[in-house]
Amino acid sequence: MYSIMVDNWLKYMLLTLIAASLLSTSALADCECGYSVNATSDPEHIVYTDIIETNFRTVQNLSYNDAWEIQTSEFPYDPTSGQYGRIDELRNVISNPLIENSTWSGSGTLGPDAGVQIWTRAGIPTNNLVPMGEIRTSRSDILYGSIRALIKATSTNGTCGAFFWYYNDTQEIDNEILSRQNNPGNNTGAVNLILQSLASEAAGYNAAETPTFDTYPLPFNPADGFHEYRFDWTPEKISFYADGKWLRDMTQNIPDNAGRGYFNHWSNGNPSWSGGPPNVDAKMTVAYFLAYFNSSNPARLSDYKSRCPSVAGTHSICTIPEYNSTQPFFFTEQKNMTNNQTNASGDATSNDSGSVMVGPLPQCMMLLIFLAGLFAVL
Ligand SMILES: *[C@@H]1O[C@H](CO)[C@@H](O)[C@H](O)[C@H]1NC(C)=O
Ligand SMILES: *[C@@H]1O[C@H](CO)[C@@H](O)[C@H](O)[C@H]1NC(C)=O
Ligand SMILES: *[C@@H]1O[C@H](CO)[C@@H](O)[C@H](O)[C@H]1NC(C)=O
Ligand SMILES: *[C@@H]1O[C@H](CO)[C@@H](O)[C@H](O)[C@H]1NC(C)=O
Ligand SMILES: *[C@@H]1O[C@H](CO)[C@@H](O)[C@H](O)[C@H]1NC(C)=O
Ligand SMILES: *[C@@H]1O[C@H](CO)[C@@H](O)[C@H](O)[C@H]1NC(C)=O
Ligand SMILES: *[C@@H]1O[C@H](CO)[C@@H](O)[C@H](O)[C@H]1NC(C)=O
Ligand SMILES: *[C@@H]1O[C@H](CO)[C@@H](O)[C@H](O)[C@H]1NC(C)=O
Ligand SMILES: *[C@@H]1O[C@H](CO)[C@@H](O)[C@H](O)[C@H]1NC(C)=O
Ligand SMILES: *[C@@H]1O[C@H](CO)[C@@H](O)[C@H](O)[C@H]1NC(C)=O
Ligand SMILES: *[C@@H]1O[C@H](CO)[C@@H](O)[C@H](O)[C@H]1NC(C)=O
Ligand SMILES: *[C@@H]1O[C@H](CO)[C@@H](O)[C@H](O)[C@H]1NC(C)=O
C-alpha cells in the first residue's frame, strides 16, 4: 500500500516536471521570438519581431503581389525651380524572374539580371515630367529594423537610384546612388546616406548641410554587379552598411514613427543631384528586399505576445546570417522559420509561410496532456 502510494507520488512528480519543461518551451517553431542582428550570446545584439523578405528574382509578376505596391504618384513640375517634375508609371516597374530558380544568379525571362527592374526613361520630356518607377511595401508598420536590399545600380549617367524607408518628408532614411558618382575608371563609387529631418526641411529639403548627410565612398562601382545596402535602425542610432561592412552610424534625427520600405529610380535634371535626364533609358535592378523589424500594429504586437510568451528554447530567436554574396539566405524559404508572419515572403502565389497558426493552442494541449496524466495517476 505504502509502496504504491510512493510509486504514484513519484509518477505525479515526474509528470509535473515533464509538463513544466514543456510549458517553459514556449516557442514551438523556430524564430517565433524574432530575428536578431548578431547572436543573442554576443555582447551587442538587437532582436526584431517581424519579417518581410522578397526574393524579386523568383517573383513572377510584382503587379500581383500582396507585399508590394507599384506607385503612380506625380511630383509636379514647378517652372520656378529650374528642374523637371517626375511621374511614376506602372510600365517602369518590370519583373524579370529567373528562368531556372535553382540558379541563384543569372538571366531572367527578359534577359540579363533577374530581379525587378525599375526604369528612368530617357530624353527631355515635352510635358516636363520625367518618367520613373517606384514601389513600396504594402505594410506601413515598420518601426525600427534591419533593412537590406541587393541592388545593381544603373551605369547610365543622370539618375538617382534610391532604397529608403519613409514616414514623411522629415522622417526618412535614404540610401541614394547617383550614377554621375560612379567611377568606372577605377571601379569605385559612392552611396549618399541621408536622414531627412526638420533641419533639411528648413533648407528646402537639401540635407547636404545637415549633420545627417554623407556622400560615402564605396570600394566598388554600384553599377558593376549586385551589392547589398543596409541600415540597422534603433531608437538610439542608425548604422549603415554596404556588402555587410559597416560604413557609419548616425545618432541625430532618428525617425520615431512607423513607415514603409521603398525603391525608386528617377531624374529631375538637377545638375547638383540626379543630373540628367539620361539620354538612354536607365535600368536599376533589385534582387531582394529583407526587412527584420518591429511592428507598430497592435494586432502584430499581440500576435507576438501569444506566439512568444517568454523567450525560451534554443531556436526561438534566429540569428540573421551574415551577408553572403554567392548564396543569400531567406527565412521565408525554410520550413517553420516564419510561422505566424504575414505578407512575409512577398510571394502572392504561395501562402506557405504566412498563415500557420501556432501559439496558445499547442500550449493548451500540453496542459490537457498534463491533466490527463494526473487523472490517470489518481
Ligand atoms: C514545425 O513546427 C511544428 C510545431 O512545433 C512541428 O509540429 C512540425 O513538425 C515542424 N515542421 C518541421 C518541418 O520542422
Ligand atoms: C554586432 O556586433 C558588432 C561587433 O562584433 C558590433 O559592432 C555591432 O554594433 C553589433 N550590432 C548590433 C546591432 O548590436
Ligand atoms: C520559381 O519560384 C516561384 C516562386 O516560388 C514560382 O512561382 C515559379 O513558378 C518558379 N519558377 C520555376 C521556373 O520553377
Ligand atoms: C504583370 O503582367 C502584366 C500583364 O502581362 C504586365 O502588363 C505587367 O507589366 C506585369 N507587371 C510586372 C511588374 O512585371
Ligand atoms: C498583405 O498586406 C496588405 C496590406 O496591408 C493586406 O491588404 C493583405 O491582406 C495582406 N495579405 C496577407 C496574405 O496577409
Ligand atoms: C513628420 O511627422 C513628425 C511627427 O509627427 C512631425 O513632427 C513633422 O512635422 C512631420 N513632417 C512633415 C513634413 O509633415
Ligand atoms: C555625367 O554627366 C555630367 C554632366 O554632363 C558630366 O559632368 C559627368 O562627367 C558625367 N559623369 C559620368 C560618370 O559619366
Ligand atoms: C577614382 O576615380 C575618381 C574619378 O577619377 C577619383 O575622384 C577617385 O579619387 C578615385 N578613387 C580612388 C580610390 O582611386
Ligand atoms: C523590438 O521588439 C522586441 C520585442 O518586444 C524588443 O525586445 C526589442 O528591443 C525591440 N527592438 C527595438 C530596436 O526596439
Ligand atoms: C556563402 O554560402 C555558400 C553556400 O552556402 C558557402 O559555401 C560559403 O561558405 C558562404 N560564404 C560565406 C562568406 O559565408
Ligand atoms: C492566400 O490566403 C488568402 C487568405 O486566406 C486567400 O484569400 C488567398 O486566396 C490565398 N492565395 C492563394 C494563392 O492560395
Ligand atoms: C498569429 O497567431 C495568433 C495567435 O497567436 C492568431 O490569433 C493569428 O490569427 C495568427 N495570425 C496569422 C496571420 O496566422
Automatic annotation (TrEMBL):
One of its GO terms (cellular component) is plasma membrane. Coiled coil: none annotated. The keyword Metal-binding does not apply. PROSITE patterns: GH16_2. It comes from the Eukaryota. It is a lipid-anchor; GPI-anchor. Its main location: membrane. This is Glycoside hydrolase family 16 protein.
